[in-house]
Structure formats: C-alpha cells, structure tokens
Amino acid sequence: MIAPTVYRRAVYARNEKGGWCLRHRRAFRHREILKLKVSAARRIFVESMKLGVARSVVIPRYPEEGLVANLLHVLEVVHRVRPDATVHVDWVLKGTEIAFRYGELGDDVWAGLFRALAPRPPAIMHQAAWRVDLAFWGTGRDHLKGRRLQEHRRVYHSTVLKWLEITNKHVLEQVRQTCVQFLDERFCIGIHRRVGNAQVADLQSDGKVPSLEMFIRAVEVIVSLLTKEGIAEHAIFLATDDAEAADEFKRAFGPRLIVRSDVQRTTSDAAEVHFRDWDRLSISDAEDVVVDTVLLSKCDVLVHASSSVSTIASIMNPALTLVRV
Questions:
Q1: CA-to-CA distance for 90 and 74, rounded, in angstroms?
Q2: What is the domain extent for residue 75?
Q3: Is 4 contained in some domain?
Q4: What order do you get walking across the sheet with 257-259 strand by strand?
Q5: Is 96 helix (H, G, I), strand (E, B) or coil?
Q6: According to the model, what pLDDT value does residue 66 have?
Q7: How many CB atoms lie within 10 A of CB 210?
Q8: Residues 216 and 133 in one domain
Q9: pLDDT of the residue at 171
C-alpha cells in the first residue's frame, strides 16, 4: 500500500511574500506508517467499491489543490466507475478555494477547458471526494517503476482517451502553433521543473527538490547521446512555474530552448502561482497549465521530478521516455 504520500510530517507557515516556510519536520514513526497504510487500504477499498456500483457520480474539486492535481482526481475516479454511470465534474468556483482560483465566483472551470461528461445528476448521487490511486499523489508518484509504471500509464491512457477531451480553442491553437513552429519533425526533450519550496520537497520520495544543475546535466547527457546517434535536429521544451529556472535554462541552452512567455511564474520564497489571490488568477492561467502539459506529452523524452504535470503528460503519451532526476 502506497502510504504515506508525503516524505515527513511537517508544519508550514506563510512568510511575508506568501510563500511556505518550514516550521517543523520529523520522520514518520514505524507505527504511524503502519496505521496510515491500514487506514488507506481500508478507505480505498470501500471507496472503489462504491464507485463501482454508483449510478450517478459527482467529482468535486479539491480546493487546496491546483488544476492538474484535480485533473488526476477526475481520472482516478472515472477509471473506476461502472460503464453506464453518469459522471459530472463539479469545478464550479464557490469562493472557498485556496489553490484553485481560476476565475470568478460561479465560473465552471471544467466547462471552460474540457468536454462536459454529463449534466449534474439528481439528488441521489455519490460524491467522489476520496483519493483512490495513491500513485497519483505526492511521494506515491515515485512508487511504481519499470513494467508496473508502464502498465499503469497504459491503462490510464485508455481512460484519458475515453473520458478526457480538451475543447478550449485557445489551448488547442497554442499547442498547434508551438508544435508547427518548434517541435514537429524534431526530436524533443521536455523538461518539467517545479519551483523548489519546502512543500514541493516533501512531495519528493527523498524529501529534496532536484537542483537546476541536476536538470541541466540530465539534458546535456541526452543531447550528447543524440549527437552520437547523428540526430542534429532537436528541441528542448521547458515547462516551469519557477522564474529562476526559466532564466537559468535560457543561459544554458540558448536558442535551442523553447519556453512559453507571458506565463505567470514565481520563486521559491513566494506564493506558488495557483495559491495567488483571486484578482491575480483567471481561466487563462488554467489554460497555460493545460498547454504546457499537452506540449510535454508531445515530446520524446521528459526530464522531471515528482509532479502532477509530469504524471499527466506521461499518461497522455505512454510512449514518452521518462528521466527522473
């Protein structure tokens, strides 16, 4: 059983810039780990059974999570519902969101990005509020390896094909333009780098955010291998919410680097983009995340740490080679 899904027990506090500061951290005790595993196994078994028999299912958003983590929750739920179930995704903003503020009160974020699965079911319905695949969450994303990981990706790719359709015209056009201009007919190295704050560190299996130098070295190794194979035409696409990473990669790779401009980014001591105030976020920020995720899935190789974005990209394209730094 994949539990716990954070590296250590930790307490955080906000700093003056809105970022997360670590107040206290300690390792899990063996008894705590056992209790968490038993509790998670029981909860996931019961919830999976309920999803397998429910005729009507509503998938709410997690107000404390960003866009792609919530998308993973949709996928883990629809993967388990009965074939004839009516499924409705409730991403209507209610004003209580902490990290899902992509619009104004009453906006339906799902409808703004994806094909609606079904209208809201009648009053008698099952609320799919629990996480049911811990390989999608935190340190659990590093749990599966080799054949088990590839099979997991393959199975969920079928779920994506059945349930997920991007309908936002801006997203589709941005993806098309970038592919035509930079990626088509080239070997593409994708990079996803999350900003390196204390919370992101506790979602990594070793409790550490890989340094920018580690990412750059990994890409340089891949470029060297391409050169030996006689592959001169290659592109490097970077998706990141880290402003410093964008600058550092530009210095390292120059004109070979493709990184989208006019995208909100942050630093390790400031608030992550999806935690910003209501007046600083809109549906366009959600669109940016989807564009970057789809473009990463179009690459041949993905250099990454543990993140929701890299997980979704790897599911969208199960042929994508993953390089975990």
A1: 10
A2: 9-163
A3: no
A4: 257-259, 234-240, 187-193, 301-304, 321-324
A5: coil
A6: 96
A7: 20
A8: no
A9: 98
Longest dimension (CA), the chain: 62
Nearest by Cα to 306 from 110, 137, 167, 66: 137
* Selection from 118, 133, 54, 101 nearest residue 308 by Cα: 133
Give residue 65's identity as a one-letter amino acid code: E
Same domain (yes/no): 76, 217: no
Let me know: does 3 contact 32? Beta carbons within 8 Å. Answer: no
The residue count for the chain: 325
Q: What is the pLDDT of residue 233?
A: 87
In this prediction, residue 31 carries a pLDDT of 92
Please say whether the beta carbons of 88 and 57 come within 8 A: yes
Last residue in a domain, options 163, 194, 217: 163
Nearest to 237 by CA among 285, 191, 290: 191
Q: Which candidate, 275, 309, 285, places its Cα nearest to that of 112?
A: 285
- Distance CA(289)–CA(38), nearest Å, equals 35
Place of tokens 């994708």: 190
DSSP states of 197-243 as a string? -HHHHTTSTTS-PPPHHHHHHHHHHHHHHHHHTT---EEEEEEESBH
Is there a domain that residue 2 lies in? no
The helix-helix angle for 146-163 and 308-316 (nearest 10°) equals 80
- Tokens matching residue 238: 């970077």
Q: Is the CB of residue 186 less than 8 Å from the CB of residue 233?
A: yes
Structure tokens at 247: 């600058």
User: pLDDT tens across 264-288, in order?
Assistant: 999 988 989 998 999 999 999 999 9
Residues of the chain with pLDDT under 50: none
Q: Is the CB of residue 218 less than 8 Å from the CB of residue 303? A: yes
**What is the tally of structural domains in the chain?**
2
Q: Which residues pair with 58 in a beta bridge?
A: 88, 127
Q: What do you get for the CA distance between the two ends of the chain, in Å? A: 24
C-alpha 199 chain-centroid distance: 15
What are residue 187's DSSP bridge partners? 234
